Amino acid sequence: MVKLSRRFKYAVIISAVIMSSILMYKLQWDSSLPAVDIEQEEIWKWYNYTEDNLNGPKVSMDDPRLVQKVKSFLIKPVDYKLKSSIEYPYKLSNPEVKDPSMGQAERIRTLLRNKENGFFIEAGALDGETRSNSLYFERYLNWTGLLIEPDPLNFVELVKRNRRAWISPTCLSINSYPDVVLFEQNRNMGKIAVKSDKVKGNTVNVQCFPFYSYLLALNVTHIDYFSLDIEGLELDVLKTIPFKDVNIE
Fold this sequence. Notes:
Number of helices: 7
Mean pLDDT: 81
Order of helices and strands: HHHEHEHEEEEEHEEHE
Shape: globular
Structural class: alpha/beta
Low-confidence stretches: 1-38
Distance between the termini: 93 Å
Largest sheet: 4 strands, parallel
Number of strands: 10
Helix content: 25-40%
């Protein structure tokens, strides 16, 4: 019988322990892959566009086909009646912060005299919590509305918040017609990449719709509060709105 030295035995045992640890780590790492894949699939399914004839200058913002298309990019809100339920609670990073808007919501509340049951549209919604101009109205004054966020990385965080509002992984068009644009990703400073811009970070193609098309899809004509923060292109969006058909407080 071959006798093994004590040093060799220890070497074999240590090697076995190391290999077992590596194997266990690999199994744990591999087991997380499906969850990552599912999350990525959930995010990117909204950004895989099929070619159609519903983009470009020839498409009117009130075209019934376009309105139907907008509806397919709207995710229904959690029922406001479930606001305090265990099943669908808000999932906020800082729930103790009542107003994360850095003062903007307070001024709007004063102007609207703490109106209840209103309707907002927030373009540039980010993650639905950080610097949100609409969250206070939703949590404490029973409002609902529409949250628009083009950046897929921000949008997946927005989905997790369980907001009581419609959400859409799209952008407001800077023209009076729908279009797919190049969007520069930059956390809370992301923006549509116009021709004069020098794109520095990552980009993604995003579907944009005219403001009025969203309203038709939601069957809404009165907006109590419109929060527009799209990094310098606000005036372009405002120029597309048919104010004779829309009432914005």
